[in-house]
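User: tokens in, sequence out, please.
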């Protein structure tokens, strides 16, 4: 395989071949040929000599790799590095500490053998995650539910300590028996557009089929209000998404429904990853003193996410990819 030409080289392989043929086959004087091709006489002599010994194939760049590398890590040790990466999914620093090697050496071995970065691997299977992105908004919308524990009035253990938190939780249990709507668990129902990452999320009381279906109808209306026509919905295999009510609701609006393979939540990874974001940046970002206080804070956070928060995968906020959004020029 030919090697890439040095960026500062005056002659590409075709020019080298023409130079060498002028000297070897046509009998041009060395200095005349060098002047004609605007190189030094030493360079002209070198390419002519390589042409005599190797012909046209010798006109490409030779590899700079040395013939021998006596200090290179042994094959047996390289195999141990690769084995630790595949079996344990360790990074270079941890493998280096285990094998008493420099981390830089381990990194070079992993790179040489084409090992993907840990950030690009599925932790459950060790396989490289296949990244994809739909070409336009609405082509695919991810739908999922995230369950969160509600905060008792007065605050949980994160805000007031363990003893006071237990006391508030016991009081919340009594309130739940009396029908309090914000005690027990909260369920984040989310519809996330694959292309733009625009999210529509509601905090609801459960994940039953009636609740999930009503949520989707409101989510579809929201996407329609910003100019997004939903074509396909992707969900997991939860009972609410396998119900006839859910199927009929999507069929009536001519939206295709696709479910992930069993035990493969990473297929719906975009919305799974989205749910980690509000968990870190809203739900547990500060010590709330009540569930009501936390829920009031969510509306502002969701607006910040859609309109202002920089998303590294799309190089900007989600709304920058929704050209028909109200108040945004097309």
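Assistant: Sequence out:
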């Amino acid at each position: 395989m030919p090697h890439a030409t040095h960026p500062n080289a005056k002659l590409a392989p075709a020019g080298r071949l023409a130079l060498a043929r002028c000297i070897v086959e046509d009998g041009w004087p060395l200095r005349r040929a060098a002047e004609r091709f605007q190189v030094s006489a030493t360079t002209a002599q070198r390419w002519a000599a390589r042409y005599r010994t190797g012909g046209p194939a010798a006109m490409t760049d030779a590899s700079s790799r040395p013939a021998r590398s006596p200090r290179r890590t042994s094959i047996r040790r390289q195999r141990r590095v690769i084995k630790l990466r595949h079996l344990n999914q360790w990074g270079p620093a941890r493998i280096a500490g285990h094998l008493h090697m420099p981390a830089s050496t381990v990194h070079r071995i992993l790179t040489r053998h084409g090992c993907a970065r840990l950030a690009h691997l599925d932790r459950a299977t060790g396989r490289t995650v296949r990244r994809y992105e739909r070409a336009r908004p609405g082509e695919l919308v991810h739908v999922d539910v995230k369950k969160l524990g509600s905060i008792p009035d007065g605050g949980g253990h994160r805000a007031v300590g363990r003893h006071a938190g237990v006391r508030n939780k016991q009081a919340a249990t009594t309130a739940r028996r009396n029908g309090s709507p914000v005690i027990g668990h909260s369920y984040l129902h989310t519809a996330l557009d694959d292309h733009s990452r625009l999210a529509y999320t509601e905090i609801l009381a459960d994940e039953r089929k009636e609740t999930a279906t009503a949520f989707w109808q409101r989510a579809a209306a929201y996407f329609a209000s910003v100019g997004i026509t939903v074509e396909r919905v992707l969900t997991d295999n939860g009972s609410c998404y396998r119900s006839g009510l859910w199927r009929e609701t999507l069929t009536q609006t001519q939206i295709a429904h696709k479910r992930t393979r069993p035990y493969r939540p990473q297929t719906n990874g975009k919305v799974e990853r989205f749910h980690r974001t509000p968990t870190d940046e809203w739900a547990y970002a500060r010590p709330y003193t009540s569930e009501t206080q936390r829920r009031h804070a969510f509306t502002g956070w969701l607006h910040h996410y859609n309109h202002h928060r920089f998303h590294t995968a799309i190089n900007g906020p989600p709304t920058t990819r929704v050209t028909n959004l109200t108040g945004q020029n097309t």
